[in-house]
């Protein structure tokens, strides 16, 4: 039995209300009230059962129902619908059906992400979508948008199942069975075990990964916190708790809070407060971290595996997190048998935190006890923390892996580690890279001089440290170009690290895109699944396209292919989508507009950096291509108002100044002055937030205040 439609319920209710008006409402008013309590009644979702999504499209709108199979009957949880835009009404039937499926799945993503589910359609659009995705840019975009989901499609008319795993490929499309063959493909509700739920992504992402504060319920708040509504025949009973039960609950809560205090004292990735802004950034760091784990030049692979575990926790992938910690522990036992206890503290701390989130409190106590015994043997003042050089260095490497914007703090970590072990080659290399990272995010010459000196020393002692050679080449790019290119020639010929080769390609990208392309193609041959290699390759083709006077068609096709491959490898990459939209816009601006509008609809789930980029590209389309100055001004303003100082914000400010100049040129002085006032007011607000410490980096998952003085608090040039 399928879910009852809204039309049946509306018709029944209308009949009762009309009758109520006729008889004064005495009897039929009660009937109308009863009608509201009869089928179809919306059920609360039960996350121990699988979900079913039924979608449909008409000439004017889209609709979908979220329901579940409960005791052989399908009960609705949610009805959603929307009108088609005028441009969408011109789509073909199969495109409308595919759009309905894509829109419904994304709209219901907070119910569906991370678990298998069933999509019921009345059109065989999905198989067609797979077969035709490479010939239709619109369907290509929808195909990629559905990649993060794992679902089964059921054709309503024929009751045939087509299995489509998360990553679709030709080998994944099964042949439909003949009509006389049994159709016993299980739905998600037949599975005995569910995948771990992904955490909800609220607008303020700070609390993800944090423990609940005292007095607040544990766990992530979302639609799955709703209890199943009691039936009309069986009113919900609230049992009278005995004093013994209440005392037991209070004791358990006190014990949990005591565990939390111990966990917060640990030195590990869960207490180091990385500025990982959102899920998209966490996913990006996981990809670059995989390169570091495989190709690191130092004996810090366990550190990166432990950080990988922390990032998997943020993604809700707890089994992967535990596996990363097991690998890290095995490597330490193999490579550091004499120093194991000092090196393993961070790993044990991560174990404790992950088991806390899994509510395995006995295992939390086990690992806290292990940490306590090691700290006691080290004569640490704290029973759960030992600020030894090994831990400071592990924090430094982790900060660098999270982003070079953390170079200043990473530098301090390595400096403190070297105070107790000044000849440690790994600590010296970490300090050199951290100072280089600080230089990339500042204009201070002291960083440039210190990074040049320290990287030169590291390369002299470690001839095969190709990462350090790339960084030194970037330092020397303007002062000693010949020496820089000599270093890079050695890197390109001998390095097997795709990320190092990608950085080498960036050195030549603006002036010599052909050379960058050759380096990137070698990197892709080493790791064809690393999406940033394909993205950078597309950027090189775009640079060639801007300068080409002939052969533009071939270059454009190569750029499109590169960005499409980048999206296939990482379907959530917003910048790949924006780049693909730009190259599509060369010949088919309708496809470009389509991608921008879809990204605008996804705006609430994007990071602040991605939001600014989408606003800028959409504004550029309106301003430069459609000459819609007023509309572009509003879009640019929306992006510039986002309180985070990414490079995109500076570009948005320049665009607003161009728009103001256009208004001034057309004698719209009032509009031009309004834009200048808006820029000044937004900048003043931004600086006030920075000066008062209220800038929470606009959506960081974790917040930490860092005092920034030149060049480090309490440091001078001589301290390097």
Give a summary of the structure in a few sentences:
This protein is mainly α. The protein has 30 helices and six strands.
Give an overview in words.
The protein is mainly α. Among the domains are: 6-36; 52-190, Ubiquitin-like (UB roll); 264-386, Alpha Horseshoe (Serine Threonine Protein Phosphatase 5, Tetratricopeptide repeat); 496-587, Tetratricopeptide repeat domain (Serine Threonine Protein Phosphatase 5, Tetratricopeptide repeat, Alpha Horseshoe); 600-711 and 716-720. Helix content is 57%, strand content 6%. The chain contains 30 helices and six strands. The protein has helices at residues 6-22, 28-36, 86-89, 93-107, 109-112, 125-132, 137-145, 243-264, 279-295, 301-314, 318-335, 340-343, 345-357, 361-377, 389-402, 407-420, 425-440, 445-461, 466-475, 481-494, 498-508, 513-526, 531-547, 552-569, 574-584, 589-601, 608-625, 629-640, 647-665, 669-692; strands at 52-57, 61-70, 73-83, 117-121, 151-155, 160-164. The chain has a six-stranded mixed sheet. A hairpin with a 4-residue loop joins strand 5 and strand 6. Helix 4 crosses helix 6 (125-132) and helix 24 (552-569) runs antiparallel to helix 25. The radius of gyration is 29 Å and the shape is globular. The model is unreliable at 1-10, 158-246 and 693-718 (pLDDT under 50).
Strands of the widest sheet, in order across it, are 3-2-1-4-5-6
Average pLDDT, all residues = 78
Q: In CATH's first tier, which class of the domain at 52-190 applies?
A: Alpha Beta
Percent strand? 5-15%
Given helix and strand content, the structural type is mainly alpha
CATH architecture of the domain at 52-190: Roll
CATH fold topology of the domain at 52-190:
Ubiquitin-like (UB roll)
- Overall body shape: globular
Low-confidence stretches: 1-10, 158-246, 693-718
- What is the number of helices? 30
**Cα gyration radius (Å):** 29 Å
Which sheet architecture does the biggest sheet show?
6 strands, mixed
Helix content: 55-70%
| Amino- and carboxy-terminal Cα gap | 74 Å
DSSP strand count: 6
């Amino acid at each position: 039995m399928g879910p009852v439609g809204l039309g049946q319920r509306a018709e029944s209710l209308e009949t009762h209300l009309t009758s109520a008006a006729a008889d004064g409402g005495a009897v039929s008013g009660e009937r109308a009230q009863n009608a509201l309590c009869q089928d179809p009644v919306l059920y609360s979702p039960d996350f121990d059962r699988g979900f079913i999504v039924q979608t449909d499209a008409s000439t004017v709108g889209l609709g979908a129902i979220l329901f579940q199979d409960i005791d052989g009957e399908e009960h609705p949880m949610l009805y959603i619908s929307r009108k088609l835009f005028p441009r969408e009404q011109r789509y073909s039937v199969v495109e409308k059906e595919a759009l309905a499926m894509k829109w419904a799945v994304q709209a219901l993503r907070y119910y569906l992400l991370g678990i298998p589910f069933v999509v019921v359609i009345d059109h065989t659009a999905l198989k067609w979508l797979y077969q035709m995705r490479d010939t239709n840019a619109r369907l290509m975009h929808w195909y990629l948008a559905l990649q993060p989901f794992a679902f089964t499609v059921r054709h309503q008319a024929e009751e045939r199942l087509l299995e489509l795993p998360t990553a679709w490929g030709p080998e994944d499309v099964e042949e439909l069975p003949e009509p006389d063959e049994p159709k016993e493909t299980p739905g998600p509700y037949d599975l005995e075990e569910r995948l771990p739920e992904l955490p909800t992504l609220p607008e303020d992402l700070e609390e993800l990964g944090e423990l609940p504060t005292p007095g607040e319920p544990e766990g992530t708040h979302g639609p799955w916190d709703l209890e199943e509504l009691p039936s009309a025949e069986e009113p919900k009973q609230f049992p009278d708790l005995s004093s013994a039960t209440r005392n037991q609950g209070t004791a358990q809560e006190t014990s949990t809070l005591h565990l939390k205090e111990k966990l917060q004292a640990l030195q590990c990735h869960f207490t180091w407060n990385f500025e990982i802004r959102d899920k998209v950034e966490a996913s990006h760091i996981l990809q670059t971290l995989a390169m570091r784990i495989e190709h690191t030049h130092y004996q810090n692979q366990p550190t990166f595996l432990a950080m990988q575990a922390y990032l998997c926790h943020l993604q809700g992938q707890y089994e992967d997190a535990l596996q990363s910690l097991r690998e890290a522990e095995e490597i330490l036992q193999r490579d550091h048998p004499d120093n194991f206890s000092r090196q393993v503290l961070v790993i044990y701390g991560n174990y404790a935190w992950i088991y806390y989130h899994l509510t395995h409190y006995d295992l939390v106590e086990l690992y806290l006890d292990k940490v306590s015994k090691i700290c006691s043997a080290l004569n640490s003042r704290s029973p759960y923390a030992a600020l030894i050089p090994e831990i400071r260095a592990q924090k430094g490497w982790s900060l660098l892996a999270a982003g070079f914007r953390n170079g200043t703090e990473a530098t301090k970590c390595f400096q403190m580690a070297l105070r107790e072990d000044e000849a440690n080659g790994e600590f010296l290399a970490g300090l050199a890279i951290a100072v280089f990272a600080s230089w990339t995010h500042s204009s201070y010459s002291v960083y440039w001089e210190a990074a040049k000196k320290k990287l030169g020393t590291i390369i002299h002692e470690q001839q095969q440290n190709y990462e350090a050679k790339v960084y030194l080449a970037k330092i020397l790019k303007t002062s000693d170009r010949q020496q820089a290119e000599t270093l890079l020639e050695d890197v390109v010929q001998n390095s097997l690290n795709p990320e190092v080769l990608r950085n080498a390609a960036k050195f030549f990208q603006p002036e010599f895109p052909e050379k960058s392309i050759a380096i990137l193609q070698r990197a892709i041959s080493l790791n064809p699944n690393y999406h940033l290699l394909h993205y950078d390759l597309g950027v090189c083709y775009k640079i060639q396209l801007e300068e080409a006077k002939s052969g533009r068609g071939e270059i454009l096709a190569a750029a499109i292919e590169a960005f499409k491959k980048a999206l296939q490898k990482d379907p959530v990459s917003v910048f790949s989508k924006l780049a693909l939209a730009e190259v599509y816009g060369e010949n088919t601006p309708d496809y470009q507009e389509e991608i921008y509008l879809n990204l605008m609809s996804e705006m609430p789930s994007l990071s602040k950096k991605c939001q600014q980029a989408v606003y800028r590209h959409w504004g550029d389309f309106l301003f430069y291509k459609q000459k819609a100055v007023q509309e572009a001004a509003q879009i640019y303003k929306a992006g510039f108002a986002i309180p985070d100082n990414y490079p995109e914000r500076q570009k948005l400010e320049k665009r607003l100044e161009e728009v103001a100049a256009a208004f001034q040129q057309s004698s719209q002085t009032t509009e031009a002055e309004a834009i200048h006032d808006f820029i000044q007011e937004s900048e003043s607000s931004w600086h006030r937030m920075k000066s008062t410490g209220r800038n929470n980096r606009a959506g960081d998952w974790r917040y930490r205040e860092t005092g920034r003085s030149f060049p480090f608090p309490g440091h001078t040039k001589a301290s390097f």
